[in-house]
Hints:
mainly alpha, binds acetyl coenzyme *A
Amino acid sequence: MDAGLETVVAAETVLSDVDGQAGRLIIRGHLLDDLVQKTRFEGVLSLLWQGFFETDLTPAEFGARLGAARVAAFERVQAAPATNPIETLRIGFCLSPDGDGLDEAIALIATSAVATGVSARRALNLPIVPPNPRNSHAADILAMITGRSPSEDETEALDAYLVTVSDHGLNASTFAARVVASTRAGLSSAAIAGLSALKGPLHGGAPGPVLDMLDAIGSPDNASAWIGAALARGERLMGFGHRVYRVRDPRADALKGALSVLPYAKGRLNYASVIEGIALSELAQRYPTRALETNVEFYTALLLEALDIPRESFTCIFACGRIAGWMAHAKEQLATNRLVRPMSIYRGPAADLAA
Ligand code: ACO
């Protein structure tokens, strides 16, 4: 038995390769850093989805289709009951047309952006901002959340984030999406499964609590005591550790780079770096034989904070990027599908077979 399935290979994929020893992420033949430098979100969709749908689209074609799809998604999401960001997104996926085709996949991508914008504005009691189909996808996400036109640097930074998190091997949410796809339940069900796995604090729910932790520590002088006490209570430090990486998560540095172009308070960044260093040394002391390094969520938190995105919406923004991978993996699963159905060992009471 392998409870965490860490030694189980459950899929062959052409989508991404996570090398946990080298700290390297390859997305469809491109090193992460190269891809972040040269590709926007529309480009990563074009790359990841190539060969999986009835038609291959260029990045510009994706831009136009996504713009129209955001407008259509807005009608559906606006009519949905007001609730928290994750539930709004889950409802949005439920209301999105179901099926396995390109139109349905694009509608789901658009829904992730629009539901994130609508729920963020509702949570702040601010007027909802409709999508603008002429904006790039990243620029429109920012405009719908903040209510202002983002600068080119801000749009580039969000694009860098969306590209960075677009795919990452068989992580928990992608695996959940593939399991659901394997039952032929359709792409919107796969997206709901992916989101439901993503929201947990051990996966995509970590970045909001990273900021909560930085706020609670308050000053570098308190850091060792605060972190030591949290570890003594058996708590996990959000933004550290990874199932696959035994060295620093390469996505952390990609995001740190994207953050450097934003007019973000230097003091905040310096403070976060100091806390990061103290956390790493406390973790090393407590787990000397286990390499626990900074993961993607630590710098996600700082980047999204610098973009004026409310922390309650962080996981939804993660979903806006990762859904690119969920859709590609669902289609890859269907292409050579075998229903995912592992075995379990029964440890319950024995039945009276003689009765
Ligand atoms: N803080 C404190 N202790 C930790 C942390 C952490 N961040 N990560 C692992 N540990 C501890 C474990 O509790 C375990 O201790 P134990 O032997 O006393 O039980 C030991 O280190 C070894 O744990 P691993 O086998 O490395 O952990 P696992 O692979 O099961 O978990 C995970 C990986 C879930 C990411 C974990 O490191 C964690 O909870 N991190 C904090 C949450 C987080 O940042 N999640 C985002 C991950 S990135 C992503 O999903 C996009």
